[in-house]
Design goal:
about 190 residues, 1 helix
Length: about 190
């Protein structure tokens, strides 16, 4: 985490963060790749690249949700590379442990705690899929495809897209669906 700007307003708290991954030797670090149903990652097609990214988090007091938005990605690597997609990664640990959390398509559910936590995309621009592989590994992906080549030193604004992250208590999937419906209706209200 490189820096965070905080703006406290009467309606919301806005956090804008810049983060870097990798520095120095290009190719250092770990490449994240797709994982199959067994939990085995695919072979990386290239060495990891150094980059810097900015995102915004908006917290609304009294609401069971907040929003996240990717703002930009900068190539800080000496090599050019392609930004295929970016992820909001949402691991579970409802009630303090992930082992008993179950994946629904876009949320985690802890049946013992009677709680849900997940992602809602009113605009329909993210590909959201929460699942566990056969080894028990979690894959809580909310991904937006970009497919943009980035030259060394280039900064790319990310497509404007806001993802809602929320939680709700309830004994069954109807509780989560109710929160989804509420947030989807909010997501259709925009101001320019």
């Amino acid at each position: 985490l490189d820096q965070v700007q905080v703006i406290q307003g009467p309606v919301r708290l806005v956090l804008t963060a810049e983060m870097s991954l990798g520095s120095g030797t290009p190719g250092a670090g770990e490449a994240k790749t797709a994982v199959d149903q067994e939990g085995k990652p695919a072979m990386a097609e290239q060495l990891p690249a150094n980059f810097r990214t900015a995102c915004r988090v908006c917290v609304y007091p009294g609401q069971p949700w907040f929003t996240v938005q990717g703002l930009s990605v900068a190539n800080t690597d000496p090599r050019a590379w392609t930004l295929v997609s970016y992820f909001h990664y949402l691991p579970s640990s409802i009630a303090g442990k992930a082992a008993d959390d179950e994946a629904t398509s876009a949320a985690w559910r802890d049946p013992t705690a009677g709680a849900f936590y997940g992602a809602i995309d009113p605009a329909g621009v993210f590909k959201i899929e929460f699942w566990k592989d056969k080894a028990g590994g979690e894959h809580p992906d909310a991904r937006q495809d970009v497919n943009a080549p980035l030259a060394s030193g280039e900064v790319r604004a990310l497509p404007e897209a806001i993802l809602y992250l929320g939680g709700v208590m309830g004994p069954d999937l109807d509780a989560w669906k109710s929160l989804e419906t509420r947030i989807r209706s909010l997501g259709r209200i925009t101001a320019r």
